[in-house]
Amino acid sequence: MDFRRLWRPVLNALLIAATILLVSNFAHAQQAEQRRLELRVGGSEQVRTSAPFKRVSIADPEVADIVVLSPQEVYVYGKKVGYTSVILWEDQRARTLLDVIVALDATPLKEKLHELYPDEEIKVHTSERGIVLSGTVSSPEMVEQAIRLAQIY
């Protein structure tokens, strides 16, 4: 009796089943829509999904807040600097993933630095820990003045 002949159809069936399972898992993974949402502290945005969703979750409610406006729309509000994610589970097992990044609004500081020191090359960036100043200034005193102004913001 040749066992290889007997097991070959069984192994082929298992291989086909495994392939079908992998393809269906891949197709399911493709149904997840991923979006990046960049907000400022105190800023908000409405997000509309392509299909009605049944459930919503947020990873870190201290960073952002969500309000369901309709079965296809949520309002996302930035509360503090940081990162969080929101998942909207839609019908037919699809879902929308929102990567929410909340940053400081450095616009008022940029405007004030340019107004007070128009000849200085000071760039303002935000980070998760606060404000970052970079560039070239005319003196060490100017560095101190720019830092003091940034600390106010």
Helix content: 25-40%
- Tell me the β content: 35-45%
**Residue-averaged pLDDT:** 84
Characterize the largest beta sheet: strand count, sense, and whether it forms a barrel: 4 strands, mixed
Give the total of beta strands.
Answer: 9
Order of neighbouring strands in the sheet with most strands: 1-7-6-3
Shape: elongated
SSE pattern, N- to C-terminal: HEEEEEEEHEEH
Folded structure, characterized:
- The chain has 153 residues and is of the alpha+beta class.
- It is 33% helix and 42% strand.
- The chain starts with a helix and ends with a helix.
- The strands form three sheets. Strands 1-7-6-3 form a four-stranded mixed sheet. Strands 2-5-4 form a three-stranded antiparallel sheet, with no helix packed on it.
- The chain is elongated and about 85 Å long.
- Strand 4 (64-70) and strand 5 (73-78) form a beta hairpin.
- The chain has helices spanning 3-30, 107-116, 140-152; strands at 32-40, 44-48, 53-58, 64-70, 73-78, 82-90, 95-103, 121-127, 130-136.
- Residues 26-30 have low confidence and may be disordered.
Characteristic key phrases:
single chain, 153 residues, alpha+beta, 4-stranded mixed β-sheet, 3-stranded antiparallel β-sheet, 3 helices, 33% helix
